[in-house]
Amino acid sequence: MAREIIVGYDGSQCSKAALEAAAEAAAAFGDKLVLVFGYEPYRMGGEIQDHRAALEEKGEQVTHEGVEKAKAAGVEAEAMLVGRGAAEALVEAADTRDARMIMIGTYGDSPLKGAILGSTPHKLLQVSTIPVVVVPAR
After folding, report:
1. C-alpha to C-alpha distance for 137 and 95, rounded to whole angstroms
2. Structural domain boundaries of the chain?
3. What's the CA gap between 63 and 101, in Å, rounded?
4. Using an 8 Å Cβ cutoff, are 31 and 2 in contact?
5. I need a surface site. Which of 23, 73, 93, 99 has the fewest CB within 10 A?
6. pTM for the whole thing?
């Protein structure tokens, strides 16, 4: 049965590696990709709306490019912008879409650094109720 694979996508090299791996998995399972751009605007200061609009514009731009790459690889894909921190956005998307898995890229920081600084892959591994695949940047 076709399902969806959630991909954390922000246009970075590690998210491009995750997209490539996710496209391969989606093709193998016959699944659809949902590229999720999580963003959390800075909550201090008087220019919050401008900041939110800039983040949304950036998210729409990079996810559009990612969706086009997935489609060029022969995989059905769509974008989803979620106004939350990256890990929370990915879990929320996975929960609401009954996803098969979450795929996210990483630059290969040490587990200790991830635990101390709170990397998105580390957070996902702690809170996700579905499999999380962490793909290293090439």
Report:
1. 26
2. 9-136
3. 19
4. yes
5. 73
6. 0.88
User: Please, what sign has the CA dihedral across residues 16, 20, 25, 31?
Assistant: positive
Q: Which CATH class is domain 9-136?
A: alpha beta
CA distance 74 to 105: 21
Single-letter residue type at 119: S
Taking only the tens of pLDDT, the chain with its 138 residues reads: 789 999 999 999 999 999 999 999 999 999 999 999 998 876 665 667 777 888 899 999 999 999 999 999 999 999 999 999 999 999 999 999 989 999 999 876 555 554 444 588 888 988 999 999 999 887
Residue with token string 């998307």: 93
